[in-house]
Structure to design on (275 residues):
């Protein structure tokens, strides 16, 4: 007798059936008529999505495991999926979001800008998968003031001469940066944009080229970095990175110094110089 642990799962098929049942036929131009089940019939979903009834049936039954991006897009339209529901169905299908279907952008979370501005003791940044800095607070701008262009973490590390002296453990920071770009490069939604910055760095930095060829993948969650700021001296900060739920490829970075530490006092000094 099969147990629940032994029974194969078909989460995508079950989700498609549930969403099919929730669609009002009249909203997609079909007569309501007499229906034995609520929502759309399999045949109707298949026709509206431009796929054979047999293929769609196999998809719902879990006998087809690899739907294409184009089909998932079509089904999302037919089943009237919201942005969050569309993201969910991509994940169930084992797919990444295609370009243009991201769940938001920096303007979708203006509350983050206001929130960052209320952190007088924490440099904070919003950046995307290409390491482009999209927003920062006053202390964040002060922290990166030695750089000529403080607009992209990867360029700052590899192309700005200040980077070598600013980051005390430059090689480790550089490897982490390359690993984060490599991880983002693996995402369908980000690859074409990541390739642009990677191409620039490969052509202008032999160090980046060597590190890129190692294919190392490194996620950014919690890291500790020592930096040498020409205005206030050396300090050590915890770099804490968080995904932004309503912006699929954007991240929030918060820098923090232990309470009562010399680094906290240096941050306070840096803030006072900025003010």
């Amino acid at each position: 007798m099969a147990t629940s642990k032994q029974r194969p799962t078909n989460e995508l098929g079950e989700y498609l059936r549930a969403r099919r049942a929730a669609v009002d036929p009249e909203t997609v131009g079909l007569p309501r008529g007499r229906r034995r089940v609520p929502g759309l019939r399999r045949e109707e979903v298949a026709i509206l999505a431009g796929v054979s009834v047999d293929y769609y049936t196999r998809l719902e039954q879990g006998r087809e495991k690899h739907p294409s991006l184009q089909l998932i897009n079509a089904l999302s339209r037919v089943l009237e999926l919201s942005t969050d529901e569309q993201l969910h169905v991509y994940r169930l299908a084992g797919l990444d979001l295609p370009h243009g279907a991201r769940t938001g952008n920096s303007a979708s979370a203006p509350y983050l800008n206001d929130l960052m501005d209320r952190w007088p003791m924490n440099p904070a940044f919003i950046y995307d998968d290409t390491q482009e800095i999209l927003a920062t607070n006053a202390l964040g701008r002060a922290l990166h003031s030695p750089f000529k262009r403080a607009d992209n973490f990867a360029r700052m590390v590899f192309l700005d001469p200040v980077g070598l002296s600013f980051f005390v453990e430059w090689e480790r920071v550089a490897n982490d940066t390359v690993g984060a770009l490599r991880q983002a490069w693996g995402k369908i939604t980000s690859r074409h944009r990541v390739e642009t910055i990677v191409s620039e760095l490969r052509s202008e930095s032999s160090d980046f080229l060597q590190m890129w060829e190692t294919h190392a993948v490194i996620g950014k969650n919690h890291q500790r970095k020592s930096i040498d700021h020409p205005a206030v001296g050396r300090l050590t900060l915890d770099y804490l990175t968080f995904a932004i739920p309503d912006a699929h490829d954007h991240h929030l970075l918060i820098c923090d110094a232990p309470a009562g530490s010399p680094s906290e006092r240096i941050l306070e000094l840096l803030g006072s110089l900025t003010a």
